[in-house]
Design a protein that fits this description.
The chain is built from 4 helices and no strands. It is mainly α.
C-alpha cells in the first residue's frame, strides 16, 4: 500500500472516531429532544441502523476529502477548516431545506439548527483531526 493511501486511511479512521464521538454527544444532548418536540410525528419508531452506518461511512469520506485533505501538505489549517465548514453547510442545507420543502410539518427551527450543526461539526472535527495528525504530517515533510 502506498504512502498516500496510508495517509488517507489514517485520516479516515481518526476522523471517523472524532466525528462519531461528537455526533453522539450532539444527538444525546440536543438533537433527540429537538427532533421529538419539533418533528416527532415524522420520526420512525427506531433508527434504521443500515442507513445510519452508511451515512457515517460516506459522510466521513467527505470530511476527509474536503476538510482534512491528508495528501495536501500545503493546505493551511484555515483552508482545511473552511473546506469542512462549506462541506457541512452544503450537505446539511441540502437535507434540511429539502425536508422543509417536501415534508409536511417539518420545522424551520430544526432546519436552521441542522445547518448550523453541519458547519460546526465538520469544522470542529476537521480542526481536531488535523491537529492530531499534524505531527505525522511534519514527520512526512522532513523525510
Amino acid at each position: 500500500m502506498n504512502t498516500r493511501v496510508k495517509k488517507w486511511l489514517l485520516a479516515y479512521a481518526v476522523t471517523a472516531v472524532v466525528f462519531a464521538v461528537i455526533d453522539v454527544v450532539w444527538i444525546l444532548t440536543v438533537a433527540n429532544r429537538q427532533y421529538e418536540s419539533q418533528i416527532g410525528g415524522l420520526l420512525a419508531p427506531s433508527v434504521n441502523a443500515t442507513g445510519a452506518v452508511l451515512f457515517y461511512l460516506v459522510y466521513v469520506m467527505g470530511i476527509v476529502h474536503f476538510g482534512i485533505r491528508p495528501n495536501d501538505a500545503d493546505a493551511t489549517m484555515r483552508q482545511r477548516v473552511t473546506g469542512a465548514a462549506l462541506f457541512g453547510f452544503f450537505t446539511y442545507a441540502t437535507w434540511a431545506l429539502t425536508a422543509l420543502a417536501v415534508l409536511k410539518d417539518f420545522s424551520p427551527v430544526v432546519a436552521v439548527t441542522d445547518i448550523v450543526w453541519g458547519v460546526a461539526a465538520c469544522s470542529t472535527v476537521t480542526w481536531l483531526t488535523a491537529t492530531v495528525l499534524r505531527p505525522a504530517r511534519a514527520r512526512q515533510r522532513a523525510s
